[in-house]
Design goal:
The protein is mainly α and 329 residues long. The protein has one domain: Farnesyl Diphosphate Synthase (Orthogonal Bundle). Helix content is 76%, strand content 1%. Helix 4 crosses helix 9, helix 4 runs antiparallel to helix 17 and helix 9 packs across helix 10.
């Protein structure tokens, strides 16, 4: 078990009340949804969900909702829907990146080929909206729809920026928000809606989720440069190999003129990518990138101060922010 996963388990224990039982119900619902479309797709969709990681986004749904929402069916639907969307994006990302592994396990693309992987991702997307539409409000469906549109826009921006090492920081941060933060935002928004929060509280919790998502992506990109395969499940520099320019490289290029002259298209093997990772790390850029991420986490936690939350709810959301700051995988 990774350190990050252990931390999330601790958050669940700390949240107490109905949260552990609600997460079990979400897990059961995910299994049921994955199994409902024939044996071939069910195997791959089920495997994708089973390997889905820490369930951070469903946890945010439950925590943002608060204890008053525990008995509402739309809460489980919302938590399952955001995890299905997250799983779908992973499957599609693996197709685009031709990624053989995800968390150390063969991807759907590697096991079944492009067509099956695309179909599996499409299935997960469709099941998410079917689930939310059946139990949730129109406002919730709109919130999730906005997040999925942002995911697609972010992916397009990333493809446009591929191999361009001169990408400015603002453009990079825009990608982080679209590809990652908007789904975090939607998780908190859907939870707050299910909990009957005021419009102001819904917006504030959504902003908390957005900030958390940006920090999460920054730290994920740091791990791509610094994290060993035994921890991350993929080789260092995977982003560099597919031409994705992230904050560590952007900052490193500012510090090292020789790095500014590197042609990313020449980074064609894992060994070359690892070597570039070492050069990036040598500039001190990883520390700068981490500092930026931690500042965003601190700002996210500050956004919770003025909100009408229970003591246990506030503490659990703060712990989620801490777990993002301390993530190792």
């Amino acid at each position: 078990m990774s350190a990050g996963a252990a931390t999330v388990k601790g958050i669940i224990r700390s949240a107490g009340g109905p949260v552990p039982q609600l997460l079990e119900r979400v897990e059961e619902r995910l299994v049921t949804l994955a199994a409902g479309h024939g044996p071939i797709l069910a195997v791959h969709a089920g495997a994708t969900i089973a390997a889905g990681g820490k369930r951070l986004r469903p946890l945010l749904v439950l925590l943002a909702a608060g204890p008053r929402a525990a008995g509402r069916p739309e809460l489980i639907a919302a938590a399952a829907a955001v995890e299905l969307i997250h799983s779908a994006t992973l499957v599609h990302d693996d197709v685009l990146d031709a990624a053989p592994l995800r968390r150390g396990i063969p991807t759907v693309w590697a096991d079944g080929g492009r067509a099956l992987a695309v179909a599996t991702g499409d299935l997960l997307f469709s099941r998410a909206f079917a689930e939310l539409s059946a139990a949730g409000s129109l406002e919730a469906v709109r919130a999730l729809s906005r997040a999925t549109s942002a995911l697609a826009e972010g992916e397009l921006l990333q493809r446009q920026d591929a191999w361009n090492a001169a990408v400015p920081i603002d453009r990079y941060l825009q990608r982080c928000e679209l590809k990652t933060a908007r789904l975090f935002e939607a998780s908190c928004t859907l939870g707050a809606l299910a909990g009957g929060a005021s419009q102001e509280q819904v917006a504030a919790l959504g902003a908390f989720g957005n900030s958390l998502g940006v920090a999460f992506q920054l730290l994920d990109d740091i791990l791509d440069v610094a994290g060993p395969v035994a921890v991350t499940g993929k080789h260092r520099g995977a982003d560099l190999l597919d031409g994705t320019v992230t904050l560590p490289l952007i900052l490193a290029r500012e510090r090292d003129p020789q790095l500014a002259a590197v042609d990313l298209r020449a980074i064609t093997t894992p060994a070359l990518a690892e070597g570039l990772c070492d050069r990036i790390a040598a500039t001190g850029a990883l520390g700068d990138a981490q500092s930026r991420a931690l500042e965003i986490v601190a700002a996210a936690k500050q956004q919770l101060v003025a909100l009408d939350l229970t003591r246990r709810q506030r503490r659990a959301l703060n712990l989620v922010a801490d777990s993002v700051a301390d993530r190792r995988s």
